[in-house]
Amino acid sequence: MNDLAWSRHVVISGCSGGGKSTLLAELASRGFPTIAEPGRRIVDEQLRRGGRALPWVDLAAFARRAIEVAVDDRQAEASTAGWVFFDRGLVDAAAALQHATGQRALVLPDQSPRYHRQVFMTPPWPEIFATDNARRHGLADAIAEYDRLLAAYDALGYETILLPKIGIRERADHLLDHLR
Question: Which parts of the sequence belong to the NadR/Ttd14 AAA domain (predicted)?
């Protein structure tokens, strides 16, 4: 797979509860392939199985599993033509692992294909933030994670684009305009 194909993989990251999943749903409704957040899939799986790789139980195990899922997601979409939008990605999982263990995890192997150079970040949006069965942390923890992600993407040379707090259709248009 050449770098051009991988560069069609676009990450939407940012603050928990900032509207990432809603934006992905809008992009999917427009016919774009989208990949659900690894973390939510892992939480669902772990709760069904009674597992412990949950962010509020064992963050390091959760992050290691998120890395595996993110790598698998990239491989599964390797031959997809056109834009593919990811709700979080490998960098998010590595940043979580680094936070959980204190060990450097934000180094990607040279042969590891990068995502698109622009990463779209949903900023903290207290008015829409809500906890649920998979998001049990509060807004302060979400903002701290957001700050870590901004630093991580910056350190790896990605251009982070903050998405405005506007209606979902306009937000999707804004993102797509940046990619044109």
Answer: 10-171
